[in-house]
Amino acid sequence: MATILKGSQVPRIAHYPKAKWTEADDCAFLAASYGLVPDEWQMRVLEAWLGRKADGTWAAGRWGLAVPRQNGKNGILEMVELFFMVALGLKILHTAHEVKTARKAFLRISSFFENERKYPELAALVKEIRKTNGQEAIVLHAKECARGEKCSCSGGGSVEFIARSKGSGRGFTVDVLVCDEAQEYTEDAQAALLPTISSAPSGDPIQIIMGTPPAPSMAGDVFTRMREAGVSGKDKRLAWCEWSVAGDVNVGRRELWAETNPSLGIRLNWSTIEDEYAAMSAEMFARERLGRWESEGSGRKAIKAELWDGAAIPASAVPTDGRRVYAARFAVDGSAVGLAAAIRPDAGPIHVEGIKVASMADGTAWLVEWLLDHHEKAAQIVVDGKAGVGYLVQALRDAKVPASVIITPTTDQAIAAHSMFESALHGKELTHRGQELLDDQVKAAEKRKIGATGGFGWAAPEGESVVLLDAVTLAHWGAKTTKRRPGRKAGFL
User: Quick one: which of 105, 307, 296 has its CA closest to 213?
Assistant: First the structure.
């Protein structure tokens, strides 16, 4: 090559709110004092993230970064965490998809505080370093603490490290939630972890999400939604930086390698990328090394067809014993109602089926009659929607259906229902038997935002409906969460 190309220091996509002033220079100065000198591109990310409003609060409450692997995104995180702990006294929860990744991050940041000879001033700040696997943490003394042997302060800045799971994060209250490896950041994890910053001691919480574009098999919808907001530029509380290519490109063009890998020629070698290009498929190379996302913008399909088709089983394999739940979902526009069922056997995945969709012009007498005929074997009856709910619930209660059997989900429960359904599909914890109407709604469904904390529901393209999919989703949630069990063995429906 006649000219040695170096990585572009400017992201292809950068969206962040205007700030009155920034902490970026102070953060970079502190980091450089301990050998973490930011590259130009890393400094750009710090400037995008660390802006302050005139009142001193963060200009953005959510910070995101997508950049191909081995470019140094974790170096940026080390700079920020060090600054947060030492200079601002903030409490951080650092999460990763894998235990080994969380452990590696802990060892890296703890090396600054354990080297008393090289960094005595950092070592003097330490109140406690926990090294037990799965409970790694660094806790610094409070600023007002005298730091004597009889120190009784509750601690100042801190960082705790955990690998994500369905229940991870419970019991933590922090200022900053870090989600590394966000391409594997599930809806269940978001539901469990986001409340850790709801009552941030600083009163000004931050969520940091970093990673690479999710592969088709990954549950990366939380990260994808943040990215879509960054691309659209409509979220005024989001700071997003992305190095990537758009659309179909010639992945062999070395100019693209430089445009998408800011550390190329700095800490990432050309020979490394050449070897990857030779070993990977074009699709994999475009995603992993050029940062190409599977979809651009919003309005994408909510459920991948291959995931849904892969969950289909023959009618002969449908379980007949377990906790049965029926769900009635009234369409948002009041035009129709869907009825569905789910059964949770003692072992194996939850099975779901659509039962019926009917126009509200036909009334709901059939629905009341059906549920009354089947309620004795139901662990739960879920009823949801803006129109018809009150009438149906009252009709069931008038017919002596116990109140404990009927549930009308809250908004938070509806959000949980959708994330559980999605996670179950990814985890192969859900089956169905291939019903044409339900299949069509699943494959047409898009996502719509619910609430302000990353929740979602199903949305139908214009002229279509997802009311049966909604009913199936709620039936699955009821079967997943109910503790009731009538104990009557009978046919599924």
Answer: 296
* DSSP characters over 288-354: HTT---S--SS--BSS-HHHHHHTB--GGG---SSEEEEEEEE-TTSSEEEEEEEEE-SSS-EEEEE
Instruction: Examine the domain organization and report whether 259 and 334 are in the same domain.
Output: no
Contact 350, 429 (CB under 8 A): yes
**Interatomic CA distance for residues 88 and 27, integer angstroms:** 10
Q: Is the pTM of this model over 0.70?
A: no
Q: Which tens digits make up the pLDDT trace of 91-145? A: 999 999 989 999 999 999 999 999 999 999 999 999 999 998 878 999 999 877 7
340 in the same domain as 260: no
| CA distances to 253, 270, 283 from 277, in Å | 11, 11, 11
Residue 298 pLDDT greater than 50, yes or no: no
* 278 in the same domain as 324: no
462: tokens are 């214009």
The CA–CA distances, whole Å, from 287 to 66, 290, 300 equal: 11, 6, 18
Side-chain half-sphere exposure of 424, counting CA atoms within 13 A: 24
Range of the domain at 327: 305-481
Contact by Cβ (8 Å): 359, 336: yes
Q: What is the DSSP letter of 237?
A: T
Residue at 308: amino acid letter: W
**Are residues 229 and 112 part of one domain?**
yes
* 33: in domain: yes
Cα separation, 225 vs 251, in Å, equals 25
Overall domain count for the chain: 2
355 and 282 part of one domain: no
Among residues 275, 272, 281, 271, which one has the least CA distance to residue 251? Answer: 281
Give the Cβ contact number of residue 44 at 10 Å.
18
**Angstrom distance (rounded) from CA 328 to CA 354:** 10
Rounded to whole angstroms, how far apart are CA atoms 237 and 233?
A: 10
Burial of 243 (0-12, 13-18, 19+ CB in 10 A): buried
